[in-house]
């Protein structure tokens, strides 16, 4: 990491060295090549910063994310070409994934999905850099994960490089060495303080001139201009730092694999945990899956029993996956240990089935929400990831990390493109005989425009609403009733959709909001 904080690299005796240190030390050739070609990579970073500002300044989320993804990949391809890094087999999958996440963001109006899609784009971008620049074959799952997280810190550590390299580039540039240019710059520097004094005096001398000067200054130093400059500068610095951070560790010495601990430690610990898991899984089979062969305690309904401990159970399944990964990476290979881990895996599958069944019972009682659907997605991903983990226990060459990335990306993309808010609204419509105002509030306030193709016709067709809303006092536990007017929420919903769509431009055009707007227009006729 030290090389990130050092001065600008120079070429001496066919070696890349860094100035500013007591001893000349050899640094990453790829990083040195990047920094020595600041004119190219600084230009790429400046283009990135410019597009970042053009696409996102005072804009909502829409097609700009897709365009941003496309620009990002084009600039990255140019950077790889300038660094003479050949495109590896499989890199196309990262390109396709990034573009698909950008497209999904363009098609949905769900803020949660939009946020998760942007996070996914950045993660795939991070992984694409590692995949292209590093030899990842000898890495295990943990090394992949640490390198992915490490790239973030390497990029932060490179924060000084854009400034150092830009100054060095300016000193070497013929443009800044030109005597006429230097004289012009000196003249401007001398004139600025004099202009300030003269403008102040003349503004006080003439009221019209003073107002004209004030308007000119407000324009030059407006918050809009400052924000545009700051966004462009941020994009430039971020892009250059990420490139430097990614290139900095390419030629780092590979650390030797340390000696693994004795398998007897893991066997002892996992056997005790496994005993508890077998007991727990027996209870799940006896009480939950049989649905009545054994009688639940009187204070529980099946829905309440399903809700209790669900998230704890989900956490345990994730912990089990981590335990298996730790055992395979930190302890010696042992046949008995593999068998015990297989037993843990089977118990984990029962826990996943139990958690899924609990959630389905809860959904049947209380209907769908985004969180409940997302939890089902997490459980499905858990099941497939666990399959990959147990395969890696028996086949060490299995590419577990890339398998997990593919599983998460594929299932989440399917979830995102499916527009869960639409299906949540459809489920509520199909499973409620009479909709009340509380349902209306949920449909119009909690769901995004993705649900409009269901919500708008439902609002239009439902002539009468049960406007009696039941509340429970949290202190007295007594129930009271309140009557609310549904028309208020319907009008707010329509106004919100119209406002979101009418305030959009070309940069932030969103398909889902546009479709919702068309449905609202049809309902107004």
UniProtKB/TrEMBL annotation:
It holds the Pfam family DUF4153. It comes from Variimorphobacter saccharofermentans. Signal peptide: none annotated. InterPro entries: DUF4153 (IPR025291). The chain crosses the membrane at residues 38-57, 63-80, 92-109, 115-133, 145-164, 184-204, 225-250, 262-289, 310-331, 337-361, 373-394, 400-418. This is DUF4173 domain-containing protein. It comes from the Bacteria. Keywords: Membrane, Transmembrane, Transmembrane helix.
């Amino acid at each position: 990491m030290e090389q990130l904080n050092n001065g600008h690299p120079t070429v001496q005796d066919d070696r890349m060295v860094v100035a500013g240190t007591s001893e000349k030390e050899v640094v990453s050739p790829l990083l040195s090549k990047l920094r020595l070609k600041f004119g190219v990579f600084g230009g790429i970073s400046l283009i990135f910063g410019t597009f970042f500002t053009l696409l996102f300044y005072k804009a909502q989320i829409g097609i700009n994310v897709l365009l941003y993804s496309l620009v990002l990949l084009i600039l990255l391809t140019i950077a790889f070409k300038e660094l003479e890094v050949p495109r590896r087999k499989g890199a196309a999958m990262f390109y396709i994934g990034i573009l698909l996440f950008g497209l999904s963001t363009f098609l949905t109006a769900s803020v949660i999905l939009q946020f998760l899609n942007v996070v996914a784009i950045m993660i795939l971008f991070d992984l694409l850099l590692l995949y292209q620049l590093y030899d990842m074959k000898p890495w295990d799952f943990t090394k992949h994960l640490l390198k992915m997280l490490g790239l973030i810190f390497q990029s932060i550590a490179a924060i000084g490089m854009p400034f150092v390299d830009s100054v060095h580039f300016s000193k070497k540039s013929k443009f800044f060495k030109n005597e006429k240019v230097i004289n012009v710059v000196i003249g401007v520097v001398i004139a600025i303080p004099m202009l300030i004094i003269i403008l102040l005096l003349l503004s006080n001398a003439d009221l019209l001139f003073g107002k004209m000067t004030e308007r000119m200054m407000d324009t030059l130093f407006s918050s809009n201009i400052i924000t545009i400059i700051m966004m462009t500068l941020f994009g430039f610095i971020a892009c250059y730092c990420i490139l430097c951070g990614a290139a900095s560790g390419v030629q780092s010495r590979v650390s030797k694999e340390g000696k693994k601990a004795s398998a007897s430690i893991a066997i002892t610990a996992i056997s005790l945990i496994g005993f508890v898991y077998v007991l727990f899984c027996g209870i799940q089979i006896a009480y939950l899956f049989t649905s009545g062969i054994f009688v639940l305690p009187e204070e529980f309904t099946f829905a309440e029993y399903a809700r209790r401990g669900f998230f704890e159970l989900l956490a345990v399944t994730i912990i089990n996956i981590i335990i298996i990964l730790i055992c395979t990476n930190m302890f010696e290979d042992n046949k008995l240990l593999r068998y015990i881990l297989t037993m843990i895996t089977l118990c984990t599958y029962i826990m996943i089935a139990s958690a899924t069944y609990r959630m389905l019972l809860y959904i049947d009682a209380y209907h769908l929400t985004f969180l409940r659907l997302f939890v089902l997605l997490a459980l499905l991903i858990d099941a497939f990831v666990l399959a990959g983990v147990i395969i890696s226990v028996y086949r060490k060459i299995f590419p577990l990390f890339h398998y997990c990335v593919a599983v998460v990306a594929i299932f989440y993309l399917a979830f995102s493109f499916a527009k869960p808010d639409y299906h949540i609204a459809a489920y509520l419509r199909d499973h409620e005989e009479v909709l009340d105002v509380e349902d209306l509030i949920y449909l119009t306030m909690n769901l995004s425009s993705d649900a409009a193709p269901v919500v708008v016709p439902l609002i239009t067709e439902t002539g009468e609403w049960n406007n009696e809303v039941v509340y429970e006092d949290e202190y007295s536990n007594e129930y009271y009733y309140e009557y609310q007017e549904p028309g208020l929420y319907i009008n707010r919903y329509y106004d919100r959709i119209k406002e979101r769509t009418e305030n959009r431009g070309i940069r932030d055009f969103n398909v889902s909001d546009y479709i919702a707007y068309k449905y609202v227009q049809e309902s107004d006729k």
